[in-house]
Queue: 3 jobs
Job 1
Amino acid sequence: MKVLVEKHPLAIRWFHWVNFPVLSLMIWSGLWIYWANDVYRLGWGSTTLLKFFPDSFNQALGLSHKLGQGMSWHFVLMWVFFINGLLYVLYTIFSGEWRYLLPTRHSFKEAIQVTLYDLGIRKEHPPVRKFNGAQQLAYTSVVGMGLGSVLTGLAIYKPTQFAWLTGLLGGYEWARAEHFLLTIGYVLFFMVHIAQVVRAGWNNFRAMVAGFELEEVTPTTHEVVAGPTSLPAADASL
Amino acid sequence: MNEENQLPSPASPVPPQAEADAAQADALRGAAQRSRRAFLVTGALGAAGFFGWRWLANAPAVDGIAAPLRKVLDFNARLTNAYYKNTRLAPEFAKSRAQKIRFNGAVGLGAEFDPLAWRLHVQGYGPAAVPQQFSIAQLKALPRTEMTTEFKCVEGWSTIVSWAGVRLSDFLARYPLATRSGRPIADPSQPPPDAARYVGMQTPDRAYYVGLEMESALHPQTLLCYELNGEPLSLQHGAPLRLVTPLKYGIKQIKRIGTLVFTDERPADFWAERGYDWHAGH
């Protein structure tokens, strides 16, 4: 029989859904800023495999001549991004949610199993939990990336008053490149995330909106037979 | 825990299928209800967020930026100024690392200009002030400061360049121009309370103009500069005198300074009037 099982606390759903449009607008305004000095590319010597960004990309998205606007949006929304991220981290610490999210010593191995399974190479289904090893690594790294964006951002926003930070990051130009690279990282994260959400299906997606999942349990014992258990990751043995 | 609960008791047998079905139907109904409510609330909040964003984006502009955004930029500037200390320096580099710097921006550098006739005009500050003029020779007679710093353009590029000139703080320590009492500013890290709050600068044709807070103007790396990479400034780069400060983007480092103004009102700023942050620095 199916029962309703709580999955994502309201606070986490809020942080998640506030972050989505805010990070999108941060990237958007960031593209307006980047356009004014679009020097990055993939390649070596005079060979360029991929220019960031091709003119067609700039044209399609209308990115040109918006540096001033881009900077003003960026330096307003940075507060929302930073405060939302900070509250999220504090919430996971004080609510104990970190237990599900932080990778354990098993996470790497499990992440490989999950990836092989998702690619159809491995047949055996990895253990089902609230967040598997791959998710723990991904969701923890992305918080680290958020911190990285704040720090590299501060290093290029106030490079004299935070000269120690800018220096630590390899100097002004490196800090700018790192800030850009992290943004590419979010885009890659987003693409994998969306693919996985689509794969995981409605029950999983609804949990990020409504908070619960419907799960199949044995009527007598209420033991979950399908769907994630609520066991903290740290307690699960592999 | 008593014995009764541990042992299966005949009074509470395994729930019959009907009960399980009823429980499941309950769960499904509850799920549908919660789900509907959650999606409606999320949708409403999303719409509110969207209209909030539209409101922000379409709010009346102040100097090219929606007024609420401008307010936050000014808040950021106050925070930046509160954190500011003029003992924190921009990194300096070996002179050998200096590069040629690109020419970017010609506003205020019109052809009708005679460098030999040039004087730095200083508008007086305070009740007893009179306008004054300085020749390049007078400025070069003041202590010379050299520095090799990274020039940062608001566009995002940067270049390491060597500069030489006189610190604005040395200029104000020698000439009493920026205080109400008419005394020079002896200690740039602690300007007297009667010092002007801002410095405004204009090109001789008044086509380009910038403003700085006094704290930035008194920073030890803020120069009235007359040499670039070991040579006298070229006209393109602002001869005979330009502002150089690693605290601010290039848009603030005005070339060909014609007039200095000390004031308590935030001076007009060319790019701040065109959608950029007035502070643009530190």
Job 2
Amino acid sequence: MTDADGSAWRRRSVLAVAPPARPRKLAKVPFVELADGRLQGVVSSGSDVERVYVSSLTASTHAYHCSTNNNRPCGGLRGAPCKHLEALAEEAVLQYGVDRVARYLRVDVADGVRSGSDLLARMDTRHEPTSAAVVFSRFLRHLAYLELPDSTTALPELHWFPATGAVR
Amino acid sequence: MLSTQVAQLRQGVPAGLADADAVVAGFDDALVGGFARVGDEAATALAALADAVAGTPLRDRVAEAVGKVTAGSFSQEDLAALAGARLALLGAAHDALLGQFDAALGRERASWTAPVGVPAEGSAARGAARAWLHETAVAGWRGVDHELLSAAGAPVEAALAEPALRRLAVLLDGLAAELQASLPVAMMSQVPARRWADLWSRAVLLAQNWSVPGDESETITGRLLPLGVDLHEHGTTVQVQVHGVLEPADGQPARLVRTAVAAAKVETITGPAVWRLLQAHPNLLAALAQRRVLTVTDLPLHGGDLRWLDAQARAGEQADPFATARLLLAPAIAAATAPLDRHPTAIAEPVLLEGYTTRQDDDGLTVEWDDQQLPVAVDRLPAAGPLTPALVAASSCCLGLLRWDGGRWLVQPLAVRATVKRKPVEAHNGDWAEGVTDPKVAKVEAKAGDAVAVLRERAGRLLRR
């Protein structure tokens, strides 16, 4: 990018700053986000439809934790990230692309890093219990969007946010 | 739109546009560094903003605000004055550009007559938004961190809870998500300075205790002939805005109007799935998918914005949008934009382009006549519809919106007629409003599963505990 291009870019109002999330199957991992300095999300239990696991991985320390939403620790944590954390990392890569997840988690992506488990393997992770409450409430807030009423008054600010992505 | 009209449009750059653009760019750069400590360059840029409005009623208020911000001790009211001055410049740019467009096309435009707004009672949500926007201005885009972004949650949630503040909520949510995705901003090689300053200053104005009359003064009955669909989307909102020609039942001249429906969503619901969130508007979706005319009864009209009430609409006979454009677009009377919404980005004028060829090169896709070109806004082709860059490249006829960004006019296609494998093809953005009609895309969709249903099931089990 030349300087001239850079200054033209800076003066554009409509730019795809954050590429849209890519669609993925939501049944197993209904919620993934890069927020609050963590990769965090919610993984549905394979055996009990009423139960979900809350998993998180801190970007700055690579500390991880997984528990039920009632703070009961996940039985799969035995000195290494459990299958829920692996699923979380895999789905994050599907949703955001490996580069964005790696940048957020401050992992240097060398050749051959493609999947969430590749990313986990590159990190010097350690276990550190955290409360599930923050992440779980963010998940509930996320779901609450689907309960909001429609708007039939024009939202003019959305002209800054064109729907995009027709790259078939 | 003819090549002579395109020529007139591209030649007649309004006087003063470059100067206004430079003043705005200076302000935008100052906001990148933040107002915690205003350096010499930023102080010069702010002084230029004050100078630019010195001949207007904003003069004293803006001069005072610039003085305070430069001195490092400023209030939310001072920031509102700066946002207002910036908006006034861009509003003037909007008016000049639109005037140039109207002159080139011979489009008649009614002047603005509706009330602009009245002071409103304060609300906690607005106060929280103002406080967050103040902190953001102090930090500057380079200073945005996780903590500041986590603090955006409260004003967004509060504004979402008040239907009258949906615009503010949707805007703040979109801005915060974009900043979140850009962390650490200090590591970005370029900051989208204009874009973020646009969003910030609009949010500052929407967060003032001011209300635009919600209940429109005028209602209208007649036939709405859709021209095309403009889709807007960010992580948590999707909006479908239909541009069309309204023929009033009382025999008044036809008008160019638009109507919008929006739904809240989450970022994993995207592509063609977004149409499923809008099923509360079956008549509108049917008219789009089946290309039908809509008969509407007593719909409120505010400027050119028709408020959509699906129960007061009925989908009627088939209507080809290209025929509508050819016969009814030129004589239809356009509406003025609400004064506070004026900004070059708000320009979205329906046009019909014919008899062109297309060219794809390093600068992107352009449509061309003998000696005239218009770039195509390919990043405005939605995944929720059948238009693709390849289809636009193969087209010879296009219904689109003329837009202005980055100092040039662009065309955003809403529908095209093309020749693919020697067969004529027609595609419109709204074709999939009632479901995907392309078997290949439908298969991919089916494989991904129904995101809306999965999340509603989760919400049903977990939300009401």
Job 3
Amino acid sequence: MSDSGELALALVQSELKELSFVAHRDLNAALPAIEPYGIEATALWAETGRDLFLYDRDAGKAFLRQSPELARATSVVTPWTRQAREFLTFRGSWKALTAYLERFAEAQAAFGAERALAWGAIGLDWGRRHLGSAEIYFATPVAELTDGRGWDGAREVLDPLQALAAERGLLPGLALPGAIKVRALLGPDALRPWLARGAEVLKSGRLRGEAFFRLEGPESEEALLAGLPGFRTQEHERFLALLARAVLGQAPPFASGGLRFGARAFIETDGRTLFWPPAFPSRDEAIAALLHHAGHLAFGSYDEPALEGLFREAGLEHPPLDSDQRITWRPLFALFGEDMVRFQLLFDLCEDLRVDARVQARFPRHVPRLLALAHVPPTGAARPYYEAARASLAGLLDGGQETGRFTPLLAPDADLVTSWRVARAWYEEGDMPPLALADRALAYLPGRSPNSQRPVYPRSRGARVNEEVEEGGGAAAVEKRETKPAPVGPGHDPDLEITPEDTSGSGGRVGVGRPQPAAVSGYRRSLLPPGEGLPYPEWDYREKAYRRDWARVQERALIERDASCAQSLLAQHAGVLRRLRRALQAEKPRRASPHRRQLEGEELDLDATVTYVVDRRTGERPQPAVYRKRRPSQRDTKVLLLADLSTSIMQEAATGDGRVVDRLKAALLLFALSLEEIGDEYAIAGFASRYRNAVSYYPIKTFSERLTADTRAVLGGLSGRLATRMGAAIRHACARFETSGGRRLLLLLSDGRPADYDDGGDERYLHEDTRMAVKEAADRGVHAFCVTLDPAGAPYLERIFGRGHYLIIDTLDELPAKLPQIYLKLRRA
Amino acid sequence: MRGLIERLRGVERDIVQDPGSDGAPYYEAQGAEVAVFEAAWQRRLPVMLKGPTGCGKTRFLEYMAHRLGRPLVSVSCHEDLTSADLVGRFLLEGESTVWQDGPLTRAVKAGAICYLDEIVEARTDSTVIIHPLTDHRRRLPLEKRGLEIEAHEDFLLVISYNPGYQTALKDLKPSTKQRFIAITFDYPPAAIEARILQNEVKGLAADIAERLVAIASQARALKDHGLDEASSTRSLVYAGELMSAGLAPLAAAEAALISPLTDDLELAAALREIVAAHLPA
């Protein structure tokens, strides 16, 4: 046996000698490290080196060179040699193999011998699917994979990746680095939904998908926020604002401070706005942080006189202002040179204590809550600061006897300058250790944060009152918008950079139409960027959950007018209109007259009373319905007609001349005129969409407006654009029924199924969402009914609107005459 | 006397009642309202009590009626209240019609103080019929009978009116408003409110009363930020009553100060947070 091993080894050596000087030299150099593991192992190893070399020179050289090191680290040879042979099954594997050899020792140390092989097998499996994935996989440090929890930790990340790779063809390596970060940020449970979302984005565009997995761009941020654990500030913004208002009498404007990896949840402020982290670890911490920071604003940490006094105290002239009229803190702390962090911490500690004491006076649970949160002191140099802050807070609760050096801060007239003086004196004592900037964050108690993180707008005292009065009104709202951080830059998808309201182009598979270039005359306008607009949720049937604020609806005005088209359409349909008018006369409600012969009412109905008395006299037992009531018995019907204005309406009509849109215009015109005739309240609106963040809602006529020549001209000038995100439009339309009560009807006029460019080819997704939107409408008392031109619409419409809640118009020419009739039928029902 | 009152409980009584001679209702004056009312009463000028719900308008009027020794007829107005409900109507009795005086007519005849609570809620036709009663004429026309009643010399009309209540759509016509002497009420200052609480709820600790008042003052900052009606003195009294009946403070506050005020989850959460900050668990 050993003879054959030696023979094989000699054979390999002689072969390599002929083949390559370098390979032969490397083999001989590595041999001494390998030989102690037995001749058979050595022979196998040498053969593997040779085979790899023959298959792919770089792979072979990498194997031979890295072997001695690996053998030393793992104390074995055969297991990884065998596994390395499997790299022979795919081409160009040297990078992956190199990475594998580098990491194998780590894997064995982390997982043990057997599982290290399983670790390698996973990488090989990925490599068979996509070589790049294996390279990324083996290049990933094992410690990152395990997160300190060995094989289970690694499985947490790898299992969902593998499952999705199998289910949706996701390239696992692409998502691995992002997945590890996401696990660290959101926890293992959030990983799967995040990956699923990523697979979807990837399907709609490779560049977008890759950006998503690199955790770049708004889509990624939204997906991360959706899975963020803890107390999410955005969801509770109103609660927090209410609480601040109740306790401090004012609610500062909030803005998102953005998502940060691995950082503590700090609130920052620029003296006007509080910048929230997306989430706090707990509700208690969020409340404590809110009251603390709103307290800073309320109790003068950023007041102009206080800031000026502070700079005077520090021996500086008027505080320097930046281009935005903001005060920068730098010169103040620059006075302390290297020791800046130490002083800044002491200063913050004093000022925080001053503010917390004043908040405590209004909100007795504030300091106890802060103390309860501060139960895990940090280690290292930050600890003394943490403990000192804790002790100073605890001193507040003792009835103010143990406050020591902080006593001046608790005086009613204490301000920022007092904090500076106290901190200065404390600093001079020099009993606190110096601290590195990196450790600074640890020194703050939960709920507190560095006060001088951003340059601040000094608050003048007069202005604060005004702000309060105008809050929610013009000035404050504008201000809030200004202080919002710049939107995250566009991703890498060129699609996203097209202006959202470019109405030209092909509708593709959207609607019933054949894909064809659309001839649209109209204007291009630059409008609101995507992301603005009213947010509405969307139902994801796969997750069985709502996606919060998923679709954004922007109300826009239609600017195309075509009065002559409206005229000619009306002339064309004059006969229909005449017939309709006659039918409508019968529907018109008569003058509001009192209800007679009622069992109860305000007054006696004399006629009824006489009859009643007569009947009584003649010995009958009539019903005493002798009152008159003035109240109308039936409430009015309100109807909102919502027209689908997607590209497909621009196609030629299958029957007769002209295009679908002409019949649509005529139908809307006749509908409007009929409704005017009946006198019911009605509104007309159109909708179109281009991705979820740009759903356009075009109010053509609102309930309160009258039908004017201009409204007719707008109807005459209708044209098709973009796609059909029906659910968002329905939700928005429901919100447009301002009042509740009465009968409310939402009449949808469509020519195709709900679809949008970004539904990832999954028709069912928007169907299910529309179905939910219709259900929501019903819950709000709005009855939805769909009139469609799609002859094949029955299956999906029945699912969405329910049996009997839709009508298919087979012949397009009937639409103008039918639409008002449909309304009348519905109204009578 | 007490025995008599006990006997009257649960018994139908006429709405026009002379105030009893036993103790006056408790009322803590906040300003000059008693003097203003007495002056208006001397000249028989109609009075409008303005102020938020539960700040003591009705209690003030009960107190004044007792002080002046006049019977008090109260009508709570609602949106279906018509002039017939106030003035009277024909009823059918057997084979003939009978006229029945409404509460306003009764008060005009008897010389009582007639109190129309939340007058804004009533239909406009019923607010207009009080016009001739509020100026020098002091007459109530009974249109349907073709009659007119000269008001009793002691008759006084008082309405209450809650500005900004519910919607801006409902407001008194200026022509109605300017016929009245207005007394504006608001929630009392903290010290007085705490005293009121202790007087209303027997055995309520001063400490708890002060905490309840502190809660209310913070909750009142949320009015118009989702809260239509702020925590009233009355709801504080209720909370105090629940506590003195042995309910845990937090549960009492939840039942009296939070749940009745709002159905809005976030608002309720904010109120709960305020309550928890001030009250012992």
